[in-house]
Amino acid sequence: MTRLYVHPLPVRIWHWINALGFVALMLTGIQIGYRVFEALPLKPVIDLHCAIGFVLIANYGVWLVYYLFSDRITVYHPELSPRTHYRNVMRQLAYYGYGLFKGQPNPHHVSAYRKFNALQAMTYQIVMILLVPLALYSGVVLWDMQAFAGTVALLGGPRAVNTLHVSLFVGFVAFLFVHIYLTTLGHTAGAHIKAMLNGYEEVEQAGEPAAEPVPAAAVAPAH
Predict the structure, then answer these.
(1) Residue 221 domain-assigned?
(2) Could you give the number of structural domains in the chain?
(3) Confidence tier at 1 by pLDDT (50, 70, 90)
(4) In whole angstroms, what is the distance from residue 185 CA to residue 97 CA?
(5) Is 203 inside a domain boundary?
(6) Which residue did the predictor score with more confidence, 222 or 27?
(7) Concatenated DSSP letters for the chain?
(8) Which domain holds residue 118?
(9) Which of 21, 62, 63, 201 could form a disulfide linkage to 195, CB 3.0–4.6 angstroms apart?
(10) Residue-wise pLDDT tens digits, 100-137
């Protein structure tokens, strides 16, 4: 195994703020929608839910600016050849559904600038470019429906906006469980979580393709 610096400090800070924030949104959202703890006053929970939402909006802005102006944006680059992308996605699905349980090697080789496999890159692009902004925006609309009356009318009324927001919530809960499961698929159950704490992924050196020409900082960051 060799250690490779894959997760820069800004990405790790953003990731953990985002993770904790979304879990908090889910818990407060459940309380708002279903009153699990009936003795708990509703207004403070709503205020907390909205405050966390605004923190995540700011955090999303940090993520967007970092990737737009950083060479690390390549981790999100799509495969421009549909045939190659389809083949890589099918290989990854076959690995997750069968090869993993037979001890076969992962078809994707992690590098500092290609940390996502084809399936992950496609999924994260949909989540980060479409679903997260939609969830955050629909939350802002529900926060002040008078100020966003045009959006409310366009989407079909308050109930439609709320249904959209709750549907996205359900999707993110499912995504969270899948995401947590996938973090256990490293060479040890906690390897990927450890990497998101210290920035270093431990990858197999033998049999990897030739390394990409990347800046020296990708391997040994300056501290």
Answers:
(1) no
(2) 1
(3) confident
(4) 12
(5) yes
(6) 27
(7) -EEEE-S-HHHHHHHHHHHHHHHHHHHHHHHHHH-SSTTS-HHHHHHHHHHHHHHHHHHHHHHHHHHHTSGGGGGGPPPS-HHHHHHHHHHHHHHHHTGGGGTPPPS---BTTB-S-HHHHHHHHHIIIIIHHHHHHHHHHHH-TTTTHHHHHHHTSHHHHHHHHHHHHHHHHHHHHHHHHHHT-SSSTTHHHHHHHHSEEEE--TTPPPPP---GGGTS---
(8) 2-210
(9) 201
(10) 999 999 999 999 899 999 999 999 999 999 999 999 99
CB < 8 Å & 24+ apart, contacts of 47-55: 48/24, 49/25, 50/139, 50/143, 52/21, 52/24, 52/25, 52/28, 53/25, 53/136, 53/139, 53/140, 53/143, 55/17, 55/21
| Gap between the Cα atoms of 72 and 65, Å rounded | 11
Position 185 in a domain: yes
Token pair of 216, please? 């020296």
Give the CATH number, domain containing residue 164. 1.20.950.20
User: Do the domain assignments include residue 177?
Assistant: yes
Dihedral angle computed from the Cα positions of residues 5, 63, 76 and 120, in that order, rounded to the nearest 10 degrees:
80
Residue with tokens 């349980």: 101
> Residue 124 to residues 48, 119, 170: CA-CA distances in angstroms?
27, 9, 17
The encoded tokens of residue 36 equal 């699990």
